[in-house]
C-alpha cells in the first residue's frame, strides 16, 4: 500500500476532490479542519455544536466542490465563507439564541458585546475583539459574529449606512493591527 | 480614484470576511479588473486570512474525521487500495481466461485435425464408391453387350465362320457370325494387329468367286460388330486397307480368311 496521498498544489487537491478521491478529502480534513473549526468556534463557542457544524461544513465542501471557482478566490477563502455562513445560520436560529440567553446567567462571553471583560477560555478572535473600543466591538459583533448586514445594523443602531461602512472598515483595520501572526 | 487609499480602507477585509454588501462587492470586482494592484491586495489578504485562521485554529474533537469518512463512504470514488484488490482478482480471472483459451485452442486444433482426417476419409470413400459405381456400370454395360452378342451367336440360323491367319499372319484370328435368314453379318476381331494410322481393316465376302465389300471394321475386339447384309457368300476374308475402305481388296494385305461350311 502507498503512503498517504500528498497534494503539492491547491489545484491538485481540488482535482482530487472533484474526482471524488477519499485521499483528497482526507488530506483536506487534515490540513484545514483545525482552521475551519476555529472559524466556527469563534462564532459558536460551544465545542460540541461547533463540531457538528464542522461536519456539516466538510460535507458541504465535499458536495459543492464542483461549484467552487478558482478564479473567484483561493480554496480556503471559499471554505472560510462556507464555514462562517453555516455557523451564522445557527447563531441566528432561535435555538441558539435561547440557549445563549440561558447561558448568559453564568457565562458573560455569550452576551452581546456591551458585557465587558473577556474570560480566559474565550475564542481567540473574540478575545482580540474585546480589546477594541466599544463602537468597533459592537459593529464587529453584529456584523461578523451575528451576520447582520450593514443595512440592518444601520437600522438597529440608528446610524447612516455610510457611517456603518466607515466604522466597520476602521474596526477591521484595528483588529488586523492587533492580530500578531 | 486613489486606488492605494481604497486598498488600505479595509473594504477588501470586509469582503473576504463576508461582510461587504452587494454594492461594495460589485465595486471591488470592477476595480480588480481595472487595477492589478487590487488583485494583488486581495491575494495578499486571502493569505493573511488563511494564516490567521490557522493561527487561531482549534483542533476538532477526535473521531470527527472518522465520522465524516463513514458518512461519505458511499460518495468516494474507488480508492487505489480497492483498485489493487480488483486488479489482483482481475489478474486471476485473466490468467484463468488465458488458460481456458489455450485449452480451447488446443481442443480446436485436435478437433480440426480429426475433422480434416474424417473429411479426407470421406472424400476417399466417396471416390472409391464412385469408382465402384463406374466399374459396376461398365461391367453392367459389358454384360449387356455379351448378353446381346450371345443371343445373336446362339440364334437359330446363325452360323459361325472362323477366319484364321494366312501364311505370315498365323496368330491373327477373327470370327464371323452370319444370320442365314436375315443375311446380317456380325464380326468379332479376336486377335488382329493394331491398325497403323490412316488404315482400317475391311471385311470381304467371296460371292460367286468375286470379293464383295462386307463392311469396315472399327472397334470389334470385345464385342460383335454389325457390318452389312451379305447373300451367298462362300468365304470371308479381312484385308488392311486405307481408312474408309477400298473397292477391291489389296490381296497382299490379307490377314485372315475362312470358308463358309454349308
Describe the protein.
The complex is a heterodimer of chains A (181) and B (262). Chain A has 181 residues and is mostly helical. Chain A has 9 helices and no strands. Chain A has 2 domains: 10-91, Orthogonal Bundle (Rna Polymerase Sigma Factor, Chain: A), CATH 1.10.1740; 112-178, Orthogonal Bundle (Arc Repressor Mutant, subunit A). In chain A, 66% of the residues lie in helices and 0% in strands. In chain A, helix 2 packs across helix 4 (75-91) and helix 3 (47-64) packs across helix 4. Chain A is globular. Residues 104-118 of chain A have low confidence and may be disordered. By secondary structure, chain B is of the alpha+beta class. Chain B folds into 3 domains: 3-55, no CATH class; 86-154; 158-259, Immunoglobulin-like (Sandwich), CATH 2.60.40. Helices cover 49% and strands 23% of the residues of chain B. Chain B has 6 helices and 8 strands, in the order H-H-H-H-H-H-E-E-E-E-E-E-E-E. Chain B has an 8-stranded antiparallel beta sheet. In chain B, helix 3 (22-34) crosses helix 4 (36-55). Classes of the chains: A mainly alpha (181), B alpha+beta (262).
| Number of separate domains of chain A | 2
Q: Which CATH-level-2 architecture of the largest domain in chain B?
A: Sandwich
- The helix count of chain B comes to 6
Tally of separate domains of chain B: 3
Total count of strands of chain B: 8
Main β-sheet of chain B, in a few words? Answer: 8 strands, antiparallel
The overall average pLDDT of chain B, rounded, is 88
Mean pLDDT of chain A: 86
| Amino-to-carboxy terminus distance of chain A | 39 Å
What structural class do helix, strand and pairing data of chain B support? alpha+beta
Instruction: Give the helix tally of chain A.
Output: 9
What profile does the largest beta sheet of chain A have?
none
Low-confidence stretches of chain A: 104-118
Q: What structural category characterises the helix and strand content of chain A? A: mainly alpha
What's the SSE pattern of chain B?
A: HHHHHHEEEEEEEE
Describe the global form of chain A: globular
Helical amount of chain A: 55-70%
Task: Give helix and strand order of chain A, one letter per element, not per position.
Answer: HHHHHHHHH
Amino acid at each position: 500500500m502507498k503512503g498517504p496521498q500528498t497534494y503539492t498544489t491547491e489545484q491538485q487537491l481540488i482535482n482530487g476532490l472533484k474526482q471524488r478521491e477519499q485521499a483528497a478529502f482526507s488530506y483536506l480534513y487534515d490540513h484545514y479542519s483545525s482552521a475551519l473549526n476555529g472559524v466556527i468556534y469563534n462564532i459558536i463557542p460551544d465545542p460540541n455544536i461547533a463540531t457538528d457544524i464542522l461536519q456539516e461544513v466538510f460535507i458541504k465542501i465535499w458536495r459543492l466542490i464542483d461549484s467552487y471557482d478558482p478564479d473567484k478566490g483561493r480554496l480556503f477563502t471559499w471554505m472560510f465563507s462556507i464555514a462562517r455562513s453555516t455557523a451564522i445560520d445557527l447563531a441566528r436560529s432561535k435555538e441558539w439564541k435561547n440557549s445563549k440567553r440561558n447561558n448568559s446567567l453564568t457565562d458573560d462571553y455569550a452576551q452581546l458585546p456591551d458585557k465587558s471583560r473577556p474570560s480566559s477560555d474565550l475564542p481567540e478572535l473574540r478575545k482580540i475583539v474585546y480589546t477594541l473600543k466599544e463602537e468597533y466591538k459592537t459593529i464587529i459583533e453584529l456584523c461578523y459574529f451575528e451576520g447582520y448586514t450593514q443595512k440592518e445594523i444601520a437600522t438597529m443602531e440608528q446610524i447612516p449606512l455610510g457611517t456603518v461602512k466607515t466604522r466597520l472598515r476602521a474596526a477591521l483595520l484595528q483588529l488586523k493591527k492587533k492580530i500578531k501572526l | 480614484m486613489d486606488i492605494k487609499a481604497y486598498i488600505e480602507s479595509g473594504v477588501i477585509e470586509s469582503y473576504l470576511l463576508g461582510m461587504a454588501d452587494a454594492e461594495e462587492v460589485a465595486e471591488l470586482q470592477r476595480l480588480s479588473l481595472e487595477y492589478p494592484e487590487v488583485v494583488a491586495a486581495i491575494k495578499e489578504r486571502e493569505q493573511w486570512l488563511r494564516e490567521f485562521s490557522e493561527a487561531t485554529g482549534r483542533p476538532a474533537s477526535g473521531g470527527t474525521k472518522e465520522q465524516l469518512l463513514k458518512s461519505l463512504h458511499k460518495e468516494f470514488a474507488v480508492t487505489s487500495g480497492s483498485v489493487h484488490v480488483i486488479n489482483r482478482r482481475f489478474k486471476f480471472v485473466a490468467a484463468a481466461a488465458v488458460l481456458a483459451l489455450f485449452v480451447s485452442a488446443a481442443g480446436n486444433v485436435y478437433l480440426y485435425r480429426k475433422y480434416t482426417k474424417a473429411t479426407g476419409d470421406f472424400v476417399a470413400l466417396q471416390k472409391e464408391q464412385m469408382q465402384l459405381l463406374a466399374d459396376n456400370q461398365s461391367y453392367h454395360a459389358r454384360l449387356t453387350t455379351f448378353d446381346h452378342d450371345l443371343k445373336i451367336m446362339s440364334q437359330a440360323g446363325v452360323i459361325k465362320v472362323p477366319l484364321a491367319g494366312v501364311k505370315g499372319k498365323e496368330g491373327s484370328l477373327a470370327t464371323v457370325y452370319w444370320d442365314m435368314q436375315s443375311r446380317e453379318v456380325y464380326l468379332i476381331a479376336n486377335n488382329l494387329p493394331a491398325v497403323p494410322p490412316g488404315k482400317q481393316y475391311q471385311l470381304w465376302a467371296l460371292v460367286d468367286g468375286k470379293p464383295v465389300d462386307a463392311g469396315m471394321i472399327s472397334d470389334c475386339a470385345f464385342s460383335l460388330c454389325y457390318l452389312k447384309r451379305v447373300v451367298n457368300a462362300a468365304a470371308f476374308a479381312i484385308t488392311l486397307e486405307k481408312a474408309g475402305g477400298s473397292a477391291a481388296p489389296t490381296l497382299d494385305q490379307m490377314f485372315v480368311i475362312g470358308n463358309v461350311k454349308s
